[in-house]
Amino acid sequence: MSVIRVGSTSTYADGWEQIFGGGGRRGGAGPGKSTTRKPAATPARTKSAAGKKTAAKAAAKKAAKKAAKKAAKTAARAAPKKTAPKKAKSRSR
Questions:
Q1: Chain Cα centroid distance, residue 48
Q2: Are 30 and 24 in contact (CB under 8 A)?
Q3: pLDDT digits (tens, 9 = 90+) for 43-66
Q4: Is the pLDDT of residue 27 over 60?
Q5: What is the distance between the alpha carbons of residues 72 and 12, in angstroms, rounded to a whole number?
Q6: By CB atoms within 10 Å of each CB, which of 46, 55, 58, 68 scores lowest?
Q7: How far, in Å, CA of 71 to CA of 52, rounded?
Q8: CA angle 68, 71, 75 (to 5 degrees)
Q9: What percent of the chain has pLDDT over 70?
Q10: Distance, CA of 49 to CA of 57 (rounded, Å)
Q11: List of long-range contacts for 35-42, beta carbons under 8 Å, 24+ apart
Q12: What pLDDT is stored for residue 57 in this prediction?
């Protein structure tokens, strides 16, 4: 059976060869080829003095907020629970 491509572009032809090329072994990548892409290298970023100061303030503020939340939670746990007063049982004669 023959299949004829009509009006193909170069990208279409590349995809066609990948799918219907017929050559090579099936399944898996060839030797030495990686199936995952490596992330692009990012340049090292240095913070200025003002940036470091702002970051330190934000970290301190976040830590204080977390500590306050934890203290409130602990205090709520330690507080005695309020319960309704018990009704006296009435005796019927």
A1: 28
A2: yes
A3: 766 768 888 889 899 999 999 999
A4: no
A5: 63
A6: 46
A7: 29
A8: 140
A9: 67
A10: 12
A11: none
A12: 93
**Nearest C-alpha neighbor of 5 from the set 24, 26, 21:** 21
Tell me the chain's radius of gyration from C-alpha atoms.
Answer: 36
Q: Is 89 exposed, middle or buried (0-12, 13-18, 19+ CB in 10 A)?
A: exposed
Q: Which residues contact 20 (CB under 8 A, 6 or more apart)?
A: 3
3-class SS of residue 86: coil
Q: Per-residue pLDDT for 42 more than 70?
A: yes
Instruction: Check pLDDT > 60 for residue 71.
Output: yes
CA distances from 89 to 85, 86, 92 (A): 12, 9, 10
